[in-house]
Amino acid sequence: MASVHEYKRLENRLVLKIRNAVLIAASLIGSFFKSIGRFLTRRYTLVFVPHSEKKVYNLHVTILSICCFLLVVFGILGAFFWYGASYSNTMYVMSNKDNRLKDTQASLDQLREETTLLLREARNFENALSSVLSALGINNRMNLSKNTSGDLSSFLGINEAPAGLLPEVNDIRRFSDYLSQTVEPITEIGSLLNSQSALLTEIPSIWPVRGGIGVITMFFGQNIHPIFGQYYIHRGIDIATSRYGDPVVAAADGQVVTAEFTYDYGNYILVRHKHGYYTRYAHLNNFRASVGERVQQGDVIGYIGNTGISTGPHLHYEVHIGSDVVDPYRYITVRSSLSRQGR
Predict the structure, then answer these.
(1) For the chain, N or C: smaller number of CB within 10 Å?
(2) Do residues 258 and 291 make contact, with C-beta atoms less than 8 angstroms apart?
(3) Under a CB-based contact definition with an 8 Å cutoff, are residues 252 and 273 in contact?
(4) Long-range pairs, 115-122, Cβ under 8 A, ≥24
(5) SS3 for 49?
(6) How many CB atoms lie within 10 A of CB 326?
(7) Which residues, at least 6 apart from 300, have a Cβ–Cβ distance to it below 8 Å?
């Protein structure tokens, strides 16, 4: 029991000490704040004495009012510098944006100029394409405005651009749609040209001397024989190069059916082609192709010579359709004519 009473006494003493410590601390804190309050409320008198006999002005202030005044002053100065820095930064940003806006405007002006040039070339392209389609008999299903105004939108029949979209961008989109419409007719042109190109390799349509060299010294039809001096029907054309050994080429795809020597033609080759065509190459110096050999258009089949009834090195070239002899020059000009139409 004694120990319990001892613990109780110790507990009471401890509580008492804590309470006394709290009271002392509260008293010290109260004294501190009272001291601060007395300091802040301490009054001072500012005396303004004029350099004359006028009334002297007295201004009573406290430390608290001085601190509040200084706080207001420093707040105003801080706000002034902060707003000044913000204004400078805003002006810098605005200046950069203004420069970028000027660059964008310059780019937009250039875009408009390029759009005008694109319009000009688009009109040339449309006219050329229409001419080619008409010449080839292909139906032109593209509906283009034929007005003469100076912008791309009127050329493509555009009334108004969608809201928020630059007219130039809308023009380019419309022109892109127009170009997509040209894919089909251009594909048809390509198919037609491919078929024509295949056909031209099957008919004698190229110059029979490699490199296109030589000149025609005698045309097809009625002529005076260079040796006998009499009128006769010349069954082909004579192409002279004034030298021996220039390569003679097949005028079309075909098969060699004759390669022999006769009194009048000398060394000659006869080639059979599709569609009933035959071509003869006479007065050759020697042969490059043999009977039964299949040759392609442009293959060398012999060399220019002066064999048979001939007055000098040249090629006598004939074109036959079945049993009829026709003017070879008309077929030589077929390819160039089609090429001009294609352009």
Answers:
(1) N
(2) yes
(3) yes
(4) 115/151, 115/152, 115/168, 115/171, 115/172, 116/150, 116/151, 116/152, 118/152, 118/172, 118/175, 119/150, 119/151, 119/152, 119/155, 122/152, 122/155, 122/175, 122/178
(5) coil
(6) 16
(7) 210, 247, 248, 249, 288, 289
- List the alpha helices (DSSP H) in 2-157: 2-40, 63-136, 152-155
CB under 8 Å to 206, separation ≥6 — which residues? 249, 251, 252, 297, 298, 332, 335
Is residue 235 within 8 A of residue 220, CB to CB? The reply is yes
Q: Which residue has the tokens 């009271």?
A: 23
Contact 262, 334 (CB under 8 A): no
Instruction: Name the CA radius of gyration of the chain, rounded.
Output: 54
DSSP-assigned beta bridge partners for residue 282? 316
**Nearest Cα to 235, choosing from 333, 331, 326, 329?**
326
Q: What is the pLDDT along the chain (343 residues), one digit of tens a residue?
A: 567 778 888 888 888 888 888 888 888 888 888 888 777 777 777 777 777 666 777 777 777 788 888 889 999 999 888 988 888 888 888 888 888 888 888 887 887 788 778 777 777 777 777 777 776 666 665 554 444 344 444 444 444 555 555 666 676 777 777 777 777 777 777 776 666 666 678 889 899 999 989 999 999 999 988 888 899 999 999 999 988 999 999 999 999 999 999 999 999 999 999 989 999 999 999 999 999 999 999 999 999 999 999 989 999 999 999 889 999 998 887 654 444 444 4
| Tokens describing residue 53 | 């006999």
Give CA separation, 281 vs 14, 103, 307, in Å.
140, 71, 12
Query: CA dist 134 to 130, 146, 183, 192, 323, Å?
Result: 6, 17, 16, 13, 37
Three-class SS state of 192: helix
